[in-house]
């Protein structure tokens, strides 16, 4: 037989069935018991909600969580206005004190 034919036949038979060690039930039973015991130890049900710890995590939980709102857009606009006024005062308005 050529290598190509042997290769095509070997892909038809799963490796567990083709090997004599895979036919014995004792090895598979122990392996299956290990898998079952692993999955029995895993927690069931919905995962508990994670409490926000830091400042940004609390902000995200409050405004982007279940009750999402448009307040972050208002906060960005207010922050840009405050930053802009601060820069305008520093670079321009402070020189015009007392109508000078």
Plain-language structure description:
The chain is built from five helices and no strands. The longest helix has 21 residues, at 71-91. The protein is rod-shaped. It has helices at residues 3-12, 15-18, 25-41, 55-63, 71-91. Helix content is 61%, strand content 0%. The termini are far apart. With 100 residues, the chain is mainly α.
Shape: rod-shaped
Q: SSE order in H/E notation? A: HHHHH
Q: Helical region count?
A: 5
What proportion strand?
Answer: under 5%
Features:
single chain; 100 residues; mainly alpha; rod-shaped
Please sum up the structure shown.
The chain is mainly α and 100 residues long. It has helices spanning 3-12, 15-18, 25-41, 55-63, 71-91.
Write the layout of secondary structure elements.
Blueprint: H1 3-12, H2 15-18, H3 25-41, H4 55-63, H5 71-91
């Amino acid at each position: 037989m050529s290598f190509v034919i042997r290769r095509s036949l070997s892909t038809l038979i799963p490796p567990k069935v083709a090997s004599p060690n895979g036919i014995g039930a004792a090895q598979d039973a122990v392996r299956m018991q290990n898998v079952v015991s692993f999955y029995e130890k895993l927690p069931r049900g919905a995962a508990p909600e994670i409490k926000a710890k830091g400042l940004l995590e609390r902000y995200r939980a409050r405004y982007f969580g279940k009750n999402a709102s448009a307040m972050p857009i208002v906060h960005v606009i207010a922050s840009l206005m405050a930053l802009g006024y601060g820069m305008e005062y520093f670079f321009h308005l402070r020189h015009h004190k007392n109508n000078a």
